[in-house]
Amino acid sequence: MSASKATAANRFGLGARPGELERSGDGREILLAQLARVPAQAEFQGLPSSAATMLREHAQLAASRAARAQRKSTAGAAADAPAMAAAAPAMNAETSDENGSGGRADRRSADMRRELREQQQSEYAARFSHAAHTDAPFVERLVQFWSNHFAVSADKGDTRLYAASMEREAIRPHVLGRFQDMLLAVETHPAMLRYLDNAISIGNDSVAAQRAEQLRRERRGLNENLAREILELHTLGVDGGYRQEDVVELARAITGWSALNSNEAQDYGDRAPDSGFVFRARTHEPGARRVLGRDYAEGGVEQGRAVLADLARHPSTARHLSFKLARHFVADQPPKPLVERMAQAYLRADGDLRAMYRALVESDAAWSADARKFKTPNDFVISALRAGELAVDSRALTGLLARLGQPVFTPRSPAGFADTAADWSSPDGLWKRIQAAQMLAARIDSRGAAPYPRALAVLGERAVQGDFAIGLRRAGSASEGHALLFAGPAFQWRV
């Protein structure tokens, strides 16, 4: 079966940019070539590591605590000595500045908080810019697929600063490598450890728990959240054959997997560690574990790593990952033979993700005329940026995606954003897309291509026919024509 370049760009990529469909080779060859090289990622250079961000975050929290203490001290002094305050109305400006509600400590804390927010926005800007300009859009689709597979949400306060860096540090380096390596990198990233509460999980028989009991202190216990999602969402799948006992045993195996705390951050000073991950032997549950019928000897941090390595190679994991990938690229209900073909390729290659991607691309089912997917809001907006050659305004795009129902890095659950047409094609959702299409169209440089030739350049001749083509030619203005292009079914659907 021939593989059209338009299908390669729109079904497997992020939507074509003008000129992209003029590349040599057929669609299948173009995709396989993208898998053979790591794309340039200049947009992400200069962004701080999550470990460096953690040092800054802990410093900001310390400054905030200092500011609160200073306000409390000032309020107490004023209450205890009203006469003194009345006798000294002309307190010098510097002292007032330090002690008042707008004091120096408050301002320092606020400045640091603002810096962290701006850093977060810089992460989003880099991600938008890379997606809009990359010449390896298939690989970027894969990055964003895995980012959603391992979903963390920025609406959880202590995860907010690390959702984007987890994608950059734990997913991008492994997107063309082994799933086992990506899995370990994600499950040991501060974003995931905080989001699913493993950072505060303590083995019931650990040294820390026993010490708390001796001192009659309240103690935290075992937290199963991360272990449950590893089995249910990240590896085997909900029907993958695990039991509650496996969840508990895995949770015990990964006790001690945590993130840098404030005391540890202070020890580093201005020198950022290599990683924000910390293994705390004191909170690790001692002893051997049994997961999915296999025994794992006590080995500290290595015990959990060994379990993850076996989970990555499990046949249920192969089928679960293959189904999700096929559903993402081919159809809401992908052909079972395609899923099985991808799973077998994954297992034969010992979890090499490229083998699974190749099985997808080389299958005729993936190029079938019946295969089609409705774009998510994120993919719709990115494809409009590429088609319209629009400048990236990350703050505006962040707000737009929130209005369209897919706020950046903010899924409603660890399962991530939904991936079927029914989830994104409600009447309200479609109406908001039309409004977004008009807004994006209005930003296109009027000196560029007119709507009809631009549509041909990004969708191909087969998709630009009939009433759609007539409407593009007869649009009252370039802006109206481009709005018709973005809002049209040929643009909204991946075919």
Number of helices: 26
- Work out the radius of gyration: 26 Å
Binned strand content: under 5%
Distance between the termini: 15 Å
Q: What labels describe this entry?
A:
6 strands, mainly alpha
Question: What do these coordinates show?
Answer:
- This protein has 495 residues and is mostly helical.
- 58% of the residues lie in helices and 3% in strands.
- It contains 26 helices and six strands.
- The protein has helices at residues 5-12, 27-35, 50-80, 82-87, 93-99, 104-133, 137-149, 163-171, 179-187, 190-195, 207-214, 225-234, 244-253, 262-268, 301-312, 315-329, 336-348, 353-362, 377-388, 394-403, 421-424, 427-442, 451-459, 466-474, 478-487, 489-492; strands spanning 257-259, 277-279, 289-291, 294-296, 373-374, 493-494.
- It has a two-stranded antiparallel ribbon. It has a two-stranded antiparallel ribbon with strand order 3-4. Strands 5-6 form a two-stranded antiparallel ribbon.
- A hairpin with a 2-residue loop joins strand 3 (289-291) and strand 4.
- The two termini are 15 Å apart.
- The model is unreliable at 87-99 (pLDDT under 50).
Topology:
Blueprint: H1 5-12, H2 27-35, H3 50-80, H4 82-87, H5 93-99, H6 104-133, H7 137-149, H8 163-171, H9 179-187, H10 190-195, H11 207-214, H12 225-234, H13 244-253, E1 257-259, H14 262-268, E2 277-279, E3 289-291, E4 294-296, H15 301-312, H16 315-329, H17 336-348, H18 353-362, E5 373-374, H19 377-388, H20 394-403, H21 421-424, H22 427-442, H23 451-459, H24 466-474, H25 478-487, H26 489-492, E6 493-494
Antiparallel strand pairs: 1-2, 3-4, 5-6
